[in-house]
């Protein structure tokens, strides 16, 4: 997943996250509305979307024995040669739709770079050195978890959600999650002793 996100951005594309854990109807609505030009997909993604949603899409199968990129160069594309700039789209994340139909929020590269720059001045290297990546990529907090750590050479610990720490202790230094999840971890005494920072995501 992380490799896919980086590959899309390096190739000059914008990513549209589709979490296979989401209801199929919601995923199909997002695909129909956003009209992506290319779909990176594994078996779980195919099953979640259903065959009808894939008919008019160019699909790159991530599990094929002969991947489409096998003959492509391993070096990064030159962003200047591609004509890319800070105003180009980086990703589109859809709202929850709690007040109506979900809407796509388009975020450009410069906005994400501003977040990375801000974070580098707020958090010490030791605080983000082992970041828990527990948020669905369909939620904007995942941008912080993934790219802040990677942009500063830190490690990511990928788990299904923050509550996974209750079953599998990890020596993470930073946790991003919601108040209910951290409360559950505190109740189970499952917050790792190595944790330096806990960021709570609240909205309303």
Automatic annotation (TrEMBL):
Keywords: Plasmid. Residues 1-190 form the AMP-dependent synthetase/ligase domain. InterPro entries: AMP-binding, AMP-binding_CS, AMP-dep_synth/lig_dom. Signal peptide: none annotated. One of its GO terms (molecular function) is 2,3-dihydroxybenzoate-serine ligase activity. This is AMP-dependent synthetase/ligase domain-containing protein. It comes from Rhizobium leguminosarum. GO terms for cellular component: cytosol; enterobactin synthetase complex. One of its GO terms (biological process) is enterobactin biosynthetic process. The lineage of its organism: Bacteria, Pseudomonadati, Pseudomonadota, Alphaproteobacteria, Hyphomicrobiales. It comes from the Bacteria.
């Amino acid at each position: 997943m992380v490799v896919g996100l980086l590959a899309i951005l390096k190739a000059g594309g914008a990513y549209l996250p589709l979490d296979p854990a989401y209801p199929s109807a919601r995923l199909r609505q997002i695909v129909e509305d956003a009209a992506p030009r290319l779909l990176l997909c594994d078996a779980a993604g195919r099953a979640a979307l259903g065959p009808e949603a894939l008919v008019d899409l160019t699909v790159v199968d991530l599990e094929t024995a002969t991947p489409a990129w096998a003959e492509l160069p391993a070096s990064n594309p030159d962003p200047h040669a591609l004509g890319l700039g800070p105003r180009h789209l980086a990703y589109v994340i859809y709202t929850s739709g709690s007040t109506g139909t979900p809407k796509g929020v388009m975020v450009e590269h410069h906005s994400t770079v501003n977040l990375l720059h801000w974070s580098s001045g707020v958090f010490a290297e030791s605080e983000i050195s082992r970041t828990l990546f527990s948020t669905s990529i369909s939620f904007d907090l995942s941008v912080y978890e993934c790219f802040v750590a990677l942009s500063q050479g830190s490690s990511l610990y990928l788990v299904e959600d923050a509550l996974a720490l209750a079953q599998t202790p990890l020596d993470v230094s930073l946790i991003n999650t919601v108040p209910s999840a951290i409360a559950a971890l505190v109740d189970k005494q499952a917050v790792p002793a190595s944790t330096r920072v806990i960021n709570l995501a609240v909205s309303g």
